[in-house]
Amino acid sequence: MAGHHDEFIRLEGKIFTKSFFVLLTLVIIGFYYIGVRYVKGIGAVSNMSDGYPWGIWIAYDVATGTAIACGGYAMAILIYIRNHWKFHPLIRSALLTSLFGYCLAGFSVMVDLGRYWNSYGFFMPARWQINSAMFEVALCVMAYSTVLVIEFLPAVLWSLENSRGETLRKVSAWLHPRLVPDEAKLASGLEWVRAAAAWLRPRLDKVLVFFIVLGITLPTMHQSSLGSLLLIAATKLNPLWHTGFLPLLFLINCIYIGYAIVIMESIISSYAFKREIEYNELAGLSRIIPWLTVIWLSVRIGDLVHRGQIVNALKFDFYSCFFLLEFCLVAGGSMILFSRRMRRSPRWLFITATMIILGGGLYRFNVYLIGFNPGQGWHYFPSFAEVMITVGVIALEILGYQVLVKVFPVLPNPHKHGANGHAQEPVGLPPGAVPQGK
Amino acid sequence: MKSQSRRDFFKLLGLGGATLLASSVPAMGSEKGGANNEALGMLYDATMCVGCKACMATCKRVNGDYGSLSYERASFDPDGLWDAPQDLSGSTRTLIKLCKESDSRWSYVKYSCMHCQKPSCVSVCPVSAMTKDKVTGVVDYNKDTCIGCRYCQVACSFTIPKFQWEKTLPQIVKCDLCRNTNLREKGITACAEVCPVGAITFGKRKDLLAIAHDRLQDNPGRYIHHVYGEHELGGTNHLYLSALSFEKLGLPTLPDNAPAEFSEKIQHTIYKGFVAPVALYSTLCFIALKNQKGQEKNGHKEDGE
User: Fold this and answer.
1) What is this model's ipTM?
2) Mean pLDDT per 10-residue run, chain B (305 residues)?
3) What's the half-sphere exposure (Cβ side, CA atoms, 13 Å) at A377?
4) CA atoms within 13 A on the CB side of B70
5) How far apart are the first and last CA of chain A?
6) B292 at the A interface (CB within 8 A)?
7) Contacts with A, B 226-265, CB within 8 Å
8) Which helix (H) or strand (E) holds A330?
9) Are A134 and B126 within 8 A, CB to CB?
C-alpha cells in the first residue's frame, strides 16, 4: 500500500444534494424510533416475541449487513493473498463500505441489546464464555471494526496533510469572535496536525500489511461463527438449513456476496457520480464469483442429499419455496456470469450482482428468520417502527458513504489507472503488468 | 505374584490419574452418558394436579421482588383482582394450563424451566449470565452480567427464558428453582412446598426417577409409559408423568442428545487451542508480505516516499 495514494481521488462536488436530504429524513425517522425504543423498551417498537427473540435487526443489520460489508474482506484476499494488484484501485471504496457496514451492525446490536449497559462484560475475562459462538462473533466484530478504521486511516491522514483548513476558518469566522482562538494559534494548530499526519502516514504504510492480514483473518473467523450461532437451534431451525456445515456455508457466502457488492457499488457510484465504469476490474471480479458459488452450491446440495433432505427441498411448501428461491437466485446469477460476453456488459453485471446479493442475503435471512420455527404458534413479521429503524441505519450508511467520498480520497483515480487500463487490457493479466504510468 | 501386584499398582495409578483428569474437567454433565443424578429437580405428575394454581400464586409472591415480576391483568378485569398470565412471560416463571384432548379427557400441565443436564442457554450465553450449579444442577440467571442479547431464548428447545419486552430496563425471567429465595430459606421450591395434592415432588434427580418409575410400574394403566425429561436432550432435572401424550401437553418430542454437545463440538474443533486462527494469520502474513515485496519491485518504484 506504500505510496499508492495517487491511485485514489477525492470526488469534487456539493455535499448537500437532494439525495442527501432524502436520506437525512429517513435517518431522522429511524432515530426517532430508536429514541422511543430506549425510553419505552423494545416491545414498544418491535414485533419480536419470546418465540422470535431475534428479528430483522439481527437477521438484516447484523447477519446480512455484515455479509454485504464483506467487500473489503473479499478484495483484501484478492489483492494481497491472490496477488492481483490491478484490483487495488477498488479497495478503498470497498473498505469504506465495510467500515460503515460493520460500525452500523455494531450500532444496531446496541439498539437490539436489552441490557446494553452491561456490554462492557465482553472486556472482563471473568465473564468470558468461550463455548458461545456469540462471544467469538462479538469480540471479532469489535476487533475487525477497529482494524477497518486503521485500514482506512491513510485516506484520512492524506486529507489532513493536504487540507488548507478552509472549512475550519469558515466556521471560526461564523462563530462569535470571543469564542474563537486568535488566527495565529489556529494556524499553528493546523500546522501541527498536518505535520503529525505527515509523520504518521509513511510509518503506518509500513506496518499496514499486518493490519490488512488481520482484516482477512478476523472476518474468516466471525463470518463462519455467524453460521455457528444457529447450530444450537437444532430443534427450531428447519433441516433444510440446519447443518454442521453452517460455518463453512456462511464463510463462502460472505466472500461471493463481498465481490458482488463491490461490483454493484462500483457500477452505482459510476452512474451516480457520472464517472467511467472500471470495465476490466469488474469483469475480472465477476469471473471469480461463479467459482465460489459452485463450491457453495455443491456443499449445500451435497449436504442436503447426505442428510436425506433433498425430498423436502422439492416439496414446494413454504420452506421449500424459500430454499428454491435462494437457490435459483444464486445459481442463476452464477450461470450468467460464466459467459464472457455477459461479464463485459454493465447492465448484466449489475443484474447478476443483484441476484447474487439477493440470493446470498436470502440464505442468511432463511437461516436467521424464515427457516426458524420455535413451534407453539409463534409468528413474526416486523413492525413499521422496527423496519424504519433498519431503514434509518441503511440510509445513514449510504449518506455517510456519499459524504465521505467527497471528503477523503476513496474512489479510483481515472487518470492514474483508467486512461491506460480501460482500453484493451485483457482480463487475467499477470500481476504487476498493469500499466501504471500517467 | 509380585509382578502381578505391581501391575495392579500401576493399574490403580492409571485409574487414579484418569479420575483426577476427569474431575478436573468441569462437571457439566458433558461427560458422555454421565447424567448428574445428585442434582436437584422436580417431578410433576399431571395425573395428580387439580389445577388450583397455588404454585403459580406462590411463585410470584416468593420470587416477585427478586425476579422483578409483576401481576398481569386480564382485559375484563379493570380493578386488577386477578393475576392472569396467558403464558410464561417476563412476569411469570411458572404456569398451569389445561390441555383438552376431548371434552371428557383433559389434563393440567405445569410449565417452568426444565433445568437441563446440558443446558443450551448456558452453552450460548456470551457473558456467563446463565450458569449451571455444579452440585445442585440449578440453571440460574444473573441479571447483573446479562447483556440482553436473547441468544438463550433462541437456543432453548423449550422456549423457557422469557424477556421483559415492555420494560425500559428489561431482564430475562425463568425459574431458578427458588435458589435465591425459598430454596435458600426452607430447602424446597415454593411450588412444591404449597402443592396441596403432592403433584410436585421436590428432591434429587435419582430419587425422583425412582419414584417416577415406581409409579409407572404400580399404575400401568394410568400413565403413558415414559418419564419425560429422563433422556430428552441428554436429560433434564425437571421430570414429567402424564396420562395424555406429552406432545398434547405442549412438551415437544425431542432427541436424546443435547444440541449444545453438537454445537460445542464443531466450535471446539475449529478453535482448538486457538491454533487454527494463529496459523491462518501467520500463513496469510507470509503470503501478503511476499506479494507486496514482489509488487513493489515490479511496478511501483516511482511511488516511494
Assistant:
1) 0.86
2) 46 43 40 75 95 93 87 85 88 93 92 94 94 93 94 94 94 93 92 94 94 93 92 94 92 91 88 86 90 78 37
3) 2
4) 9
5) 18
6) yes
7) 250, 252, 254-255, 259-260, 262-264
8) helix A318-337
9) yes
